[in-house]
Write a structure and sequence with these properties.
This protein has helices at about 10-25, 30-35, 40-50, 65-100. By secondary structure, the chain is mainly α. α2 crosses α3 (about 40-50). The model has no long low-confidence stretch (mean pLDDT about 85).
């Protein structure tokens, strides 16, 4: 699809400013969305995300929210510990055979 229109990406600052125009600027979502050239549903989504988590909203560039980052770290650690346990089980089985 050469020359086609891809997904546009908006940084955190753009999203926050768009929502600010609705919340503080007294403009309607439809009006702000039209002026910025975005779909109304997208602006509603940004507004909801900002209301739900003003600090963690729009982490950007593939970054996760802090709690999601911690969850991912703990999942990696858990996987590593399971692998270590399996290695120790195998080593115990090998040493047990040689003792007897």
């Amino acid at each position: 699809m050469e020359g086609g229109i891809g997904r546009r990406k908006f940084d955190s600052e753009f999203k926050r400013e768009a929502v600010r125009q609705v919340v503080e600027g007294g403009r309607s979502v439809a009006e702000v969305a039209r002026s910025l050239g975005i779909h109304e549903m997208l602006l509603h989504k940004w507004k909801r995300q900002l209301n739900e988590d003003s600090e963690g909203a729009f982490p950007g560039k593939g970054r996760l929210k802090p709690q999601d980052e911690e969850l991912r770290r703990l999942q990696r650690e858990n996987t590593s510990l399971k692998e270590d346990r399996e290695i120790l089980k195998k080593a115990l089985a090998i040493f047990s055979k040689h003792r007897g």
